[in-house]
Design a protein that fits this description.
mainly alpha, 3-stranded antiparallel beta sheet, 3 strands, 58% helix, elongated
């Protein structure tokens, strides 16, 4: 493996790991019921994955077929994760989201303190 290939793998491996981990963070959000709002964390993880993917693509060179394939794979995983998270981004500042029967989400805070 060439030094460019090693450098590209050094960037693409954590990028794919972050992207797959972000999908794992969205699995519980697709179900009905109240759950913690981890959509902001998923968006930040996707952003970091895209930045690492761009660095890996630049390290491999724009003519690299492997780099283009890895970039397309990463784009598909990030798009899947964001497709799940986008409907609840209006709940960014709340700590809990809950799904309605029609698939929409509503936001609330779990404030357990007595006032």
């Amino acid at each position: 493996m060439t030094p460019r290939g090693c450098l590209g793998a050094l960037f693409f491996a954590p990028a794919l790991w972050l992207a797959l981990l972000s999908i794992g963070g969205t699995n519980d959000l697709a179900m009905l019921g109240m759950d913690w709002n981890n959509a902001p964390v998923v968006v930040v993880m996707c952003g970091l994955a895209v930045a690492l993917g761009l660095a890996g693509y630049a390290a491999l060179g724009w003519r690299s077929v492997v780099g283009a394939g890895m970039a397309l794979l990463l784009a598909g995983v990030v798009a899947t994760s964001l497709y799940i998270v986008v409907p609840m981004l209006h709940c960014w500042s709340y700590d809990t989201v809950a799904a309605n029967d029609d698939g929409s989400y509503y936001c609330l805070n779990r404030d357990m303190s007595i006032r």
